[in-house]
Amino acid sequence: MTPRIAIIGAGFGGLCMAIRLEKAGITSYAVFEKAEAVGGTWRDNSYPGAGCDIPSHLYSYSFEKYASWTRRYPGQPEILGYLEHCADKYDVRRKIRFATEVTDAAFDGAGWRVTSRETGTAGASRTEQYDVVVAAVGQLNRPHMPEIEGMGDFEGVAFHSARWDHGHDLSGRRVAVIGTGSSAAQFIPKVAERAGHLTVFQRTPNWVIPKPDAEFTPFVQSALHFVPGLQRAYREWIYRYAEGTLYPALAGGWSTQLLKKRALAHLHTQVADPGLRAKLTPDYPPGCKRVVIDSRFYPALTRPNVDVVTDRITRITPKGVETGSGLHEVDTIVYGTGFLSTEFLAPIDLTGRDGRKLHEQWKDGAEAYLGIAVPGFPNLFLLYGPNTNLGHNSIVFMLECQVDHIMRCLPYLVSRGPMEVRPQVMAAWTEQLERAMERMVWGNGCRSWYKTAGGRVTNNWPGPTPLYKRLTSRSPGPMYKYG
Ligand code: N01
């Protein structure tokens, strides 16, 4: 028997899963995609300046290397184009149910009853039987809108960075940007170029390091395409650099001070005004929040039409943003306020064995063995699940490890029945994770999207990525119970 598999999401993770199934000759799957196109986060985040801060030669599938990247760090349209290329090349579009959202899924003792309906409608729902559910909804798919008094009274145009209003021309306008994370750092320079005046509301400064971007000329692209092993070696070099230099900086290792020095040197080189520099200097260790990798952010903040306001926002009025220093009148507000990152899988209602609810089980923070398997939820597998995010390397690497693990699981669940991670395996996993977490920089000293309100780090993987690969490559057989 070949298992019937429901994949939720057609972003980097869901497409990877579908392609690997196709490659294995398994076509008994369907991909549920709430939007009308593939791409996930790379479809949703189309704000001006959007791009990846991990070089695309690494931030791409190992089985679909691409010599045509036009630069080291290409923009969002090119990355989205790559995903569309992969969907077409491996012919997985025919299996994607676009504009269809999964609302709930329940384990019935043998498999999963998956209920879906047309996105955004209260229309008729449809329930189908699958053996396996692979949830590939990502960690950063639901925008976080802050709760600020008076937000609803604002008379101008307001939107979140992941829902950019491309019909709203910013030329000459008075714009407010709330938030200064990786997204804002990318769109602020573009907004500053167009706006009449830009006020950036920064609650906490970020550590920023330069982005060594470069164009790949047709000559370089040809060399990467035709010279045997060159692209592979380049990819390997980027991976090793991230692992060998950036990871130790986050784990209290040899490069911790180096990262700080590099970020401070970047700040001093790009910002001459000591007052602005003071505002932009963080008081927590680098890496505690995601380090911003960008060379255009600081210069944008030094423009004559840009102000950085660090007073606390007290409320939004019909005319603008009010802080302790008064009302900042604007006609546009862009919320660069991040995502509901710790609410994994919300708003899907998942019911496991004996009626247990996933969101109830995770009320103190999401957890899963390898970030993939959840006790009490047989044959449910997660991609980019709890504790699999990275602050230093490519998530696509992690996704491929996870898909690899799931592919190893399929023969077991076919021959032995529904598989569920053993409680003692899960307990040992949690303990090891907590121990490894102690030495990581993101535990104390800052607020970040890596942590729950209670301070538990539910998003990040605390180890080196080769270790994660080793753990996900082991035979899954003994880790699970069956039936
Ligand atoms: O979101 P964030 P993001 N009042 O959560 C502020 C990935 N990414 O969309 O720091 C005022 O980092 C908040 O302030 P504070 C990447 O992994 C990747 O920028 O909490 N401010 C912060 O400044 C990244 O880390 C790429 O004090 C409020 C900002 O909003 C992740 O996405 C590119 C507030 C939120 O920053 C998320 O980045 C872009 C309030 N009430 C993004 N609430 C790549 O290149 C929140 N803030 C791969």
CATH class of the largest domain, named Alpha Beta
**Which ligands appear in the coordinates?**
3-acetylpyridine adenine dinucleotide
Tally of domains: 2
Uncertain segments of ≥5 residues (pLDDT<50)? none
Beta fraction of the residues? 15-25%
Class by alpha and beta content:
alpha/beta
Taking strands numbered 1, 2, ... along the chain, how are they ordered across the largest sheet?
3-2-1-7-19
- CA radius of gyration is 23 Å
Report the count of strand segments: 21
Query: What would the CATH topology of the largest domain be?
Result: FAD/NAD(P)-binding domain
Supply the key terms.
single chain; 483 residues; alpha/beta; FAD/NAD(P)-binding domain; 2 domains; five-stranded parallel sheet; 13 helices; 21 strands; globular; binds 3-acetylpyridine adenine dinucleotide
